[in-house]
Write a structure and sequence with these properties.
By secondary structure, the chain is an alpha+beta fold. The protein is built from seven helices and four strands. About 15% of the residues are buried.
């Protein structure tokens, strides 16, 4: 059965995301093991998320944080990475980039940097209790 909305929906990013999840690098698997199930600050992360024309390694949608884990090939693609970062920042996201070896060899430091950045980000939906304290 053909549905009119099927034409407008491009499945390519979803299929590519699935392929990337199934073929994650060791660094991506290691970081995902520490981000999944709201383990870091109670924040929900998703992996291999299409955002515009790009697929991002890890995304926390509510605080609008993107985490990219880069291998050596990114040293050659600095212009493309800069274009990607500019696009994501225009969409309201903060982008953190880590090299594979940083994730694999200094995981605790990487997690501390992510936690620190999350703590510095404004809450998208402040609690009433916090708002009431501000007013007193």
């Amino acid at each position: 059965m053909h549905r009119p909305y099927d034409k407008a929906y491009d499945r390519t990013p979803t299929l590519r995301s699935r392929e990337l999840r199934n073929n994650a690098t060791p660094a991506e698997r290691a970081l995902w093991g520490r981000l999944r199930n709201r383990q870091l600050g109670g924040i929900r992360f998703n992996r291999q998320v299409p955002l515009g024309p790009f697929i991002c390694d890890f995304v926390a949608r509510t605080p609008k944080l993107v985490i990219e884990v880069d291998g050596g090939q990114h040293a050659l693609n600095t212009l493309e990475d800069a274009r990607r970062t500019r696009f994501l920042e225009r969409e309201g996201y903060t982008v953190l980039r880590f090299w594979n070896n940083d994730v694999l060899e200094r995981m605790e430091g990487v997690l501390e940097l992510i936690s620190s950045r999350l703590a510095d980000m404004p809450s998208p939906d402040p609690s009433r209790e916090r708002e009431e304290r501000k007013g007193t």
